Amino acid sequence: MLLLETYRNQRLAAKRSPLYERNRFAKFLISFGVLFWIAYLIYLGTALYFILQEEMPNMEPYHVLNGTLVLFLILDFFLRFLLRTPVQEVKPYLLLPVSRKRVLDAFLIQAAFSRFNLIWLSLFIPFAWLSVRLFYGWTGIAGYAAGIWLLMVFNGYCSMLIRTLARQRFAYVLLAVPLYGLMLLVSLMQPDGQDGSFFMNLGEGYIEGNPWTFAGTIAAIICMAGVNRNIQGRLVYRELARAEDNRIKHVSDYGFLERYGIIGEYMRLELKLIFRNKTPRSNFWSYFILMALFAAALSGNAYGSNSYMGYFICLYCYCIFGLMTLSRIMSYEGNYMDGLMVYKETLYHLLLAKYYLQCIFLAIPGLAMILPVVQGTITWLVSLSYLFFTMGPVFALIMQLAVYNDKTAPLNGGIMSKSQVNTAWQAVITALSFAGPLLMHRMLTLFLPETAACLTLLAVGLLTVATHRLWIKNIYRRFMKRRYDNMEGFRYTR
């Protein structure tokens, strides 16, 4: 009953939020995005079977995939940093005559049956249908799916423990290094000398329905749930009395930007906004990690000879941080918009500073793309054309949101904070900014050779960069026409 009651309370809390009606379209688009990624994982699971069958004909594809299960666990660990922990959810129930341990048990059980644990089945079930079914039939697929689900539940509890400790001190994130490092060592350093043999045997135990394999996994889940219950129970009251630490431990003045006048001052303001506030800082490092993971996948030629997937990942690496940061352009400034409106043309220089800083940040994925270019996964022309096309038309389109964003984003909320409001304009323009370059490249290749298509993208990007002051001035003028409506929205959602 307590489990059902906590679930019901969560749904009511979301519906009773004053921003619920305003956020419905964004929720629809989030649901659409989830369906898109499920479809993508189904495609990836199907493609992996044929890639592994072609690249390693002497081994069964499911053996190869099982040997890399630890890599899926590491990726799943990073993705779970977007989720909340039970110690955050349990605080309101401490005012009620309900046992603290019972409430924690309810949230831990709820975490085990979270829909997030089912996401990876979208990849493994299609793969098992093509590979496992040939030898073990439907029972093999069912056992494999159940085993992968249990493995993700265990990984969820590991991630939950580290996230809970990291809320007390961020250095606890480093616990993930020995945890997943040990998994890598166990999978790679086996007496029989077969790389990945531990996880190969684990996956095969799931497929064969070996009771000892399932019993061992369930025992590991119970142990990790017990550790979570113990530690989170101790941290509940510390979380309740939690106070934000406003002390500045290290001050960076970015004095080298003073030589650039007023634009340099706003670049300093933007850097301080990103690195001194919890939400922008968490976003920056989260997207940096995602970019690094996808760049590593591209360097490892994870997608084989599928050049279109290579283009997709290359563009993703260039776009991810700029799109996710600029999609909230002016929303963070909504916290102090009244001060920015004091001087004439202040926002014009602020927009220029934001654009220049995002262009500088593109040097990070630019350096990450050197290895794939050297290895021949992508060509230098593709990388260069996507770099300048991102710097030009993509940023020009996403910065149009400066005109339409009228909701204040919290500076110190979590990444998935309930007060993080998305709008229809944000969702639509972000989707167009990301999909546009791929569609344009695809259309150009229908009429032009590959080299000519990349040169066209490069030329369009350079032209847009060269005229950046014109279109930024246009954004500024349109913003000023509706500044009073926007400022009212910023105050209402502050």
What does this structure look like?
- The model is unreliable at about 415-420 (pLDDT under 50).
- About 30% of the residues are buried.
- The protein has helices at about 1-15, 25-55, 60-65, 70-80, 85-90, 100-110, 120-130, 135-165, 175-190, 195-210, 210-240, 260-275, 280-300, 305-325, 335-340, 345-360, 365-370, 370-375, 380-400, 400-405, 425-445, 450-465, 470-480, 485-490.
- The two termini are about 35 Å apart.
- Helix 2 (about 25-55) packs across helix 3 (about 60-65), helix 19 packs across helix 22 (about 450-465) and helix 21 crosses helix 22.
- The protein is an all-alpha fold and about 500 residues long.
- The protein has two domains: about 20-240, no CATH class; about 260-490, no CATH class.
- Helix content is about 70%, strand content about 0%.
Number of domains: 2
Radius of gyration: 25 Å
The proportion of residues forming helix, as a percent range, comes to over 70%
- Uncertain regions: pLDDT < 50 for 5+ in a row? 414-421
Mean residue pLDDT: 79
Which word captures the global form? Answer: globular
Report, as a whole number of angstroms, the end-to-end distance: 37 Å
The strand count comes to 0
Structural class: mainly alpha
Strand percentage lies at under 5%
Count helical runs. 24
Main pleated sheet:
none
What is the N-to-C succession of helices and strands? HHHHHHHHHHHHHHHHHHHHHHHH
Structural descriptors:
single chain; 494 residues; mainly alpha; 2 domains; 24 helices; 0% strand; globular
